[in-house]
C-alpha cells in the first residue's frame, strides 16, 4: 500500500513500493559496483512525485558532487536536483569534525569551546584514537535528519538515503553505536548512541546492497546480508548494476557456450549481409564465433551468480549498463528503472 495521511487519503506522490514505511535507505556495495551512482538514483526515485529526500555522504569522497557534476559540497543541506514529476533532492556531505561540534552544542552547549578544541587538534585527536566515534557522529547526524520535524510538525524529509561505506565495513559501521552503548554506561553519549541504534535497527531502515553479476561482488553481498542478519540489522534489497542484455536467443547461447556454432554458416551470413566485403570471411567468422563464445560463457557465469543471490530471499532490481556513462541523464534513467520495478 502507498503512504497515506491521518485521514486515510493517499499522500501527494505516494505510490506502492517494496519499501513502504522505510524512511532511511542505506546503500552499500563493493568498490567499483557503482554504489554512489545507485544511491543518487535511488534518491531521485524516492523524491519523484513531489517528495523531499536527503542524500547523505559519509566517507568524505565528494562522490555525490561528482555524480551530479557539482562543485564540492559544503557541510550543509543543499538542494541539488529536481526529481521526475517534481520533488526535491537535497544533499549533505557529513564532515565528522563539524558533526562533533554539533554534538557538543546539542548535548553540552559547548560549540564555542569545541571550535577552540578544533584549533588545538583535540577533536581530530579524539576521532583518531577512537575511530568508532567518527562512525557514531556520522550515523547520528543521518539519524537526526530522519527524525527531524519541520515547523508544521511534519517530517522534514520524506526519506533519507545514505551513501554508506563498502560492504566489507558496513556492519561494523552500523553496529558501532551498540559498542558505544556498552562502553558508556550513562549520560548523553549513551543516550545518543541508543537513539541512533533505535533508528538503524528499526523497520524504518533498510540496508541495500549494490553488486555486479561477478563472483567477488556477489560473495561480498552474500556475506554482508548474512552479517546484517546476525547483527539484527534490517536487510533491504539487492541492486544488480550494469546488467547487459543477452542479445541472443537461448539456443544460440547454448551452442556458442558448447563451441557448436557453424562458422561456415556464419561466413555465409556475413557475405549475404555485405559485412565481409574485402576481408577473409572465414577468418572473420572464426573471430566472431570466439567472441560470441566468450559472451555466452559470461552469460552463463552471470546466471550462476544470480542464482546465488536468489538464495538470500530479498528483492532484486536490475539496473542496465549505461552505455553513455553515468551522467545526469543516466541517473534519471536508473531512477525510472527503479520505480518501474517497485524499488521506490
UniProtKB/TrEMBL annotation:
Pfam families reported in the protein's UniProt record: ArsA_ATPase
ArsA/GET3 Anion-transporting ATPase-like domain location: 24-179
Domain of life, source organism: Bacteria
GO molecular function: ATP binding; ATP hydrolysis activity
SUPFAM superfamilies in alphabetical order: P-loop containing nucleoside triphosphate hydrolases
Matching InterPro entries: ArsA/GET3_ATPase-like, ATPase_ArsA/GET3, P-loop_NTPase
Protein name: ArsA family ATPase
Gene source species: Microbispora oryzae
